[in-house]
Design goal:
The chain is of the alpha+beta class and 220 residues long. The chain has a single domain, classed as Jelly Rolls, CATH 2.60.120.220. It is 15% helix and 35% strand. The strands form 4 sheets. Strands 1, 5, 10, 11, 13 and 15 form a 6-stranded antiparallel sheet that branches. A hairpin with a 5-residue loop joins strand 3 and strand 4. The longest helix has 27 residues.
């Protein structure tokens, strides 16, 4: 038994010695890695914007309109978009009719630009009884609204909804790191410099907008 055990012990010691030597060799020749790359240095904000229509709506919403929903106020009358680009993820709409009547809501992703267009699908629903009309839709894959877009008058989608409809826009904003700035398309009235202000989905000043934001927000 002693004769058979000794070779095994000798082999094990030799294996450990060889592994230690290889490990020391790797450590002596190791290269110090360079600092890792930095990803997503810009500010990214994924959120849901909620609006309530205070009048019947039947109009196109542009990417400029959407980017004007969150503004940096720079004076009593001027403001700039807080973010440079926007991507639409989903749109949800609820509309409850007067008892005995019916409401209808419609969304069409109809934007067009070189290389990309909206999917042109018509999403429509009508209420029945006490159940609200309801849509939960998203732009088609590789359509215009499904990609990040900067502030332009290009159509993002067409929206039709009666007074009192609740509209949720789920989207992702991205900022800029190269001092590219875009001013709001409509002037601010009595703005507070340095504050973050909110606007309706039509890009119009809150006093005349068809889209009411949550009442506790600073609207401009």
């Amino acid at each position: 038994m002693l004769v058979t055990q000794r070779p095994k012990m000798m082999v094990r010691v030799r294996d450990k010695t060889q592994k230690t030597q290889r490990g020391n060799s790797r450590r002596r020749g190791a290269v110090i890695p360079h600092p890792p790359p930095i990803q997503n240095y810009e500010v990214k904000h994924s959120t849901t914007l909620r609006f309530v229509t205070n009048a019947a709506v039947s109009q196109v919403i542009t990417f400029q309109n959407i980017l004007d929903t969150i503004l940096m106020i720079t004076s009593a009358t001027t403001a700039f978009d807080l973010f440079l680009a926007i991507k639409i993820r989903r749109i949800k709409i609820w509309s409850l009719p007067v008892l005995g009547q019916s409401n209808s809501v419609t969304v069409i992703f109809e934007g067009g630009a070189t290389g990309f267009v909206g999917d042109r699908k018509v999403h429509q629903d009508s209420s029945m009884g006490i159940e609200p009309a309801f849509l939960d839709v998203s732009p088609g894959q590789d359509s215009l609204a499904s990609k990040f877009q900067v502030s332009t008058a290009t159509n993002a989608f067409f929206l039709e909804a009666p007074t009192g409809s609740v509209v949720d826009l789920m989207c992702t904003f991205r900022s800029d790191v190269q001092a590219n700035v875009v001013s709001a398309q409509n002037a601010v009235v009595g703005g507070t410099t340095g504050a973050i202000g909110y606007r309706g989905l039509d890009g119009i000043a809150s006093a005349t907008s068809k889209f009411t934001i949550p009442t506790s927000f600073y609207s401009v």
